[in-house]
Amino acid sequence: MLHTVNKSPYEKNSLETCLGLSLDGSDILLIEDGVYGAIAGGKASAMLLEAMKTRQVYALGPDLAARGIDPGRLVDGITVVDYGGFVELAARNDRVQAWL
Amino acid sequence: MSEIKKFMYINRRAPYGSIYALEGLEVVLIGAAFDQDCCMAFVGDGVFQLVRGQDSTQTGMKNFSPAYKALGDYDVNRLYVERESLAERGLSEDDLMELTWEDEDDDWAEKPSIRVVSREELARLMEEQDVLLNF
User: Fold this and answer.
1) B75 near B32, Cβ under 8 Å?
2) pTM of the predicted model as reported, rounded to 2 decimal places
3) Residue B67: φ, ψ to 5°
4) Rounded to 5 degrees, what are φ and ψ at B9?
5) What are the domain boundaries of chain B?
6) What is the complex's ipTM, to 2 decimals?
7) Could you read off the pLDDT of A60-84 as tens digits, one per residue?
8) Which residues of A fall below an 8 Å CB-CB distance to B?
9) A17 and B131 in contact by Cβ < 8 A?
10) Which CATH number among 1.10.10.10, 3.30.70.2740, 3.40.1260.10, 3.40.50.2300 corresponds to the domain B6-134?
11) Yes or no: is domain A2-99 CATH 3.40.1260.10?
């Protein structure tokens, strides 16, 4: 399953809940304000590193760029994708769950 | 006409502070009216939606908690509540409303709709669905 998270982890618990309820092998894509969680050293770093032992985590490049977040500042292991990559992730997974 | 899909409505917000809970409930009833296979999950603050004894009279807001009791009549008879979310909030199953449905295959026996499940069980249930909608 592909999980998208569009809320900042500083405002909502969407990312934490998503990580708690996603199975091994899931794809997790941070979009919109969700990309704030991808910054290394931030609140969500540790849980993302833990999640990436069994799951893939992605961040949407255009949303990073819009917010002035340099891809070099992300937690190690997070893959940046463009809109085409988003489509590919949605197509590759049989289902998508949007964590709001 | 069309195939029946398995829908899970995931409720993650408390009932009166925002419109999510009420709107989510409306959408569930719409899905059920279209004869889809609907179940609900209550996670995080969503578990507060099912707490018994809600009385919003003094706030001027509508108390929509009785509407959950109608879910069984719409064949929405699986309400999964995450055990960890209850525990984190100092709640237990005894704090929740008694919600039941009548099983027509079992001489209309009344059966409980609420099923308290672990986070891990809920994660697996999510994988069994065709469509997942968060509120």
Assistant:
1) yes
2) 0.88
3) -65, -25
4) -100, 120
5) 6-134
6) 0.79
7) 999 999 988 899 999 999 999 999 9
8) 1, 13-14, 17, 20-23, 95, 97-100
9) no
10) 3.40.1260.10
11) yes
